[in-house]
Design a protein that fits this description.
The chain is globular. Helix 1 runs parallel beside helix 12, helix 2 packs across helix 3 and helix 4 packs antiparallel against helix 8. It has a single domain, classed as 3-Layer(aba) Sandwich (Rossmann fold). The chain has 258 residues and is of the alpha/beta class. It is built from 12 helices and 8 strands. It has an 8-stranded mixed beta sheet with strand order 1-2-4-3-5-6-7-8, sandwiched between helices.
Length: 258
């Protein structure tokens, strides 16, 4: 399904019955990355998955993008669907969108899951994401596939699950260059630490024990900055814990939401 939101066509899917849960994916992914969560969530919830600006089936406007802009897209989609309140599960970039939305429009959110994400960019973030955007523009998204897979998954998982790796590789390679570069800009300037401290929303911070993209210290800072947040560490998981440790991820999420 598609909706006209903030001047662009946004692709989304809705399934299940019950309270709303919105799923927001990482950079260079799309809504299909949430497949391991669908069956568990749709038994209890109405699940909204959508493609972030410049990704998947959503339109690709010229960048750069900001996290405030991505949060406004999500807010517009919720308004289009008549959703007055939703749980939120955000992974990496999707968790940063959740933080921007929670600060700007806290009344829209119920319980919030922040997986493999951060509230404060690393000191080298601007240079790092700038380099990745330039690589995408000069060599194409295929040049980013193997480095991304290495960051996203542990080596044992990559070796044991070649079919998953092929599917994720196709998803990364198929991400529009301008959409990727636009979101690189958004990821270069993450600073929510102070803004979170006034929130009164329940939050679960999920970290991968082997996550090198957002190390455990970043999750610990996020959990300290969000009042009353609970931190859970998933063993045997790197950055995409929702896929690599799907059963443990789903168990933590359902226990928190229910």
């Amino acid at each position: 399904m598609r909706a006209q939101i903030n001047g662009l066509q946004v692709h989304y899917e809705v399934a299940g019955h019950g309270p709303w849960v919105t799923l927001s994916h990482p950079i260079s992914a799309n809504l299909s990355i949430w497949a391991p969560q669908l069956d568990a969530l749709t038994r209890q919830f109405t699940v909204l998955r959508y493609d972030t600006r410049g990704h998947g089936g959503t339109q690709v406007p010229a960048g750069p993008y900001t996290l405030a802009q991505l949060a406004a897209d999500a807010q517009g989609l919720l308004a289009h669907l008549g959703v007055s309140r939703t749980h939120w599960i955000g992974l990496s970039l999707g968790g940063m969108v959740a933080q921007a939305l929670a600060i700007a429009q806290p009344q829209l959110l119920d319980r919030v899951v922040l997986a493999n994400t951060t509230c404060k960019a690393a000191p080298n973030a601007a240079a790092l994401w700038g380099d990745r955007a330039r690589l995408a523009r000069t060599e194409g998204m295929t040049a980013l596939v193997q480095p991304t897979l290495s960051r996203w998954f542990t080596e044992p998982y990559r070796l044991a699950q070649p079919d998953d790796m092929q599917e994720v590789a196709r998803m990364i390679a198929g991400t529009p260059v301008e959409g990727y570069a636009g979101c690189c800009a958004a990821l270069s300037d993450v600073e929510f630490e102070e803004g979170l401290q006034g929130l009164n929303l329940s939050a679960l911070v999920l970290a991968g024990a082997q996550d090198q993209a957002t190390p455990l210290a970043m999750s610990q800072l996020l959990a300290r900055s969000w009042p009353g947040a609970k931190l859970a560490v998933l063993q045997g998981a790197a950055h995409i814990s929702s896929l690599e440790q799907a059963q443990a991820f789903n168990s933590e999420v359902l226990g928190f939401l229910l």
